[in-house]
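Single Protein Entry

Contents — chain, fold
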Amino acid sequence: MPRKRPKQLDQLLGSQRLQQFADFTEQHQRWQQQMRDCLQEQSLSELVPHCEVIAVSAPSLIIKVSSAAIGQRIKTAQGRIITYFQSHATPAVTQLEIRVRPSRQDSTTPAPQAAEKPTRNESETVRKLREQAALCEEPLRSQLLALADKYDGSP
């Protein structure tokens, strides 16, 4: 199979695809800045590093968040965020779509190992559980005593 000649730099830089990519990148930066401004206006500035606008495609604003907890906080401010983007974004936004995608840094951490037995002084733990059980009423008393017996019976 004959090899194709490489394209000239002028051909690559003048292509429509490169221009479309540059336009989208510029638009994405504007959306991200609008999201930062919106969160700061809503007193949610601590969420800024955890949220990223993926796209605004009428009628949806699509946001990537780093955890479900952050997603829930964004969801509670959904109405205010939509109102902000309706007045500031080019396409009309009427709904918010949240996608939870943990960052790669979070996903590369090793999974927690199976819970090991506590290494601290178990007789001290048993003593504290029994003391607390004496101060409590049923059914909590019997549950604390059963837990103390479980620790007391372990080798």
Summary: The beta strands are 51-57, 60-65, 95-100.
